[in-house]
Amino acid sequence: MPEAVRLRKRRSVLYSSAGGAAAQRGAGKRGGAGPGGEGRGAAPEGPVTDKPRPRRCGRTRPAAGSRSGAADAQLLPRPDQLRPGRVLAVSGGGASHVQLSLYLTQIWVPRIAQAVLAAFADVQLYSLVQHLENSETAKFVFFCQLCSWFTWYSCTRTLTNTMETILTIFALSYYPIKGSKMGNSCKYLALVALAIVIRPTAVIPWIPLVFSHFLQEQKKTNLILHTCIPVGLVTVGTSLIIDRVFFGEWVLVQLNFLKFNVLQNLGTFYGSHPWHWYFTQGLPVILGPHLPFFLHGCALAPRRYHIFLLPVIWTVLVYSTLSHKEFRFIYPVLPFCMIFCGYSLKHLKAWKKTAASFLLLSNLVPALYTGLVHQRGTLDVMSHIQQLCKNSQQSQAFVFILMPCHSTPFYSHVHCPLKMRFLQCPPNLTGNESYVDEADVFYSDPLGWLNKEFYNDTLLPSHLILFNVLEQEISSFLALKGYEKTATVFHTHVPQGRV
């Protein structure tokens, strides 16, 4: 049986206090600590008071004129704070500038940097096709890449899948394809290695490409000894050193990744899909309106283009063997697909302008909707929580996010020592067949869980954030404990399940 994956225990120095540690020790009698030191029966960190205090409640409810689909974040000020609808005063100009700088640095700068890298990657894709074919074909490939709704949706998100895709495009531009003048074995292998360090799944689309390169390479010994081994040693060595610094011990993260997701298949804890999902839903959805052009391009493209189709088929096949599936997992093969879409568009004759207009308009709607409207509430609500950092009662505030775990960002969007907690959902690393995570326990009986967890008023959070579907179930708890709704944040037009 594979060795269990070990997770590193972390503790934030900034967001902890001696009072909080004592409170957790006192709560240990009610429940053991979960991953990260968060106990299911733990009291909030920091000082607590014995006298009742008004509560804040954030939740989701329907927007005016609709039955469902909006998210509300309700924040109730204490009597000594400004009432809802008033502008909060910021005390201390210096502190506000520091918080603004932190907000811009930690939220917007990564997104802008990701967008800039994605733009450079698009240009590299254009250059690659230009060297392989001609400028006209490159323009159509570039147009298809820019039109893709899923590219717009994903390219600025700070996900490892996004960086994996960007590095894949850069590496592909240096891949030694017959007819390309940009081929450079050392550069493309170094970029592939970097992508694997960032996200080990990056190796999947490159397995057939590297194997094909090896078969066609005349100086195979030189390729292995002078390129592959040096690049591999430098990459693995750098990865080991970085992980040694942060974990405090020698860890091969890529091996742990393999054990967790493949050998132990623990990804199924977060959902599973049938084997054909990527063929019937995953790839068709991320291609969207490009799908007919992709199929047409595959049938029309010359033999030398088959090297771009091979990673697509191979990647989808490999991911289909894993139970846990997501759209973003196959995002790295989308640029390969765009090459065929552009080739198809270029060779259309009578319908070229019509097809281009169709691609632009049909992708524009889902790109704008998913990027600006759909499921935005869990991000927008963080601006309400951020306001607590400017309040003089910050040390007594305690935010509890009663949503499916990881619904919202955490301290990356709240740059102050504000006490926060969310429902935990760590995977079952112990092999316990009866294991149920905290989030599932809560949703099985929300009202009973809250009454048991907060049996003493001194343990109550000062703010609650939840989706509107939960409101009716726990309405008696909210009324009894004095919570009031103070803000509404739209989330989605298509609510389902716990959202």
How are the SSEs ordered, and which strands pair?
Layout (H helix, E strand, L loop, with lengths): L17 H10 L27 E4 L34 H40 L2 H13 L1 H6 L5 H14 L11 H14 L4 H14 L3 H28 L5 H11 L13 H11 L3 H10 L5 H15 L13 H13 L5 H21 L4 H11 L10 E5 L16 E4 L15 H7 L1 H8 L9 E4 L8 H7 L1 E3 L14
Parallel strand pairs: 1-4, 1-5, 2-3, 2-4
Helix pairs in contact: 2-3, 2-5, 3-13, 5-6, 6-8, 7-12, 10-12, 11-13, 12-13, 16-17
Structure explained in plain terms:
It holds the Pfam family Glyco_transf_22. Its main location: endoplasmic reticulum. Residues 1-77 are annotated as: Disordered. Belongs to the glycosyltransferase 22 family. Residues 29-40 have a biased composition (Gly residues). The chain is mostly helical and 499 residues long. The protein folds into two domains: 18-88 and 376-485, no CATH class; 104-347, no CATH class. 51% of the residues lie in helices and 4% in strands. It contains 18 helices and five strands. It has helices at 18-27, 93-132, 135-147, 149-154, 160-173, 185-198, 203-216, 220-247, 253-263, 277-287, 291-300, 306-320, 334-346, 352-372, 377-387, 438-444, 446-453, 475-481; strands spanning 55-58, 398-402, 419-422, 463-466, 483-485. Strands 3-2-4-1-5 form a five-stranded parallel sheet. Helix 10 (277-287) packs across helix 12. The radius of gyration is 26 Å and the shape is globular. The two termini are 37 Å apart.
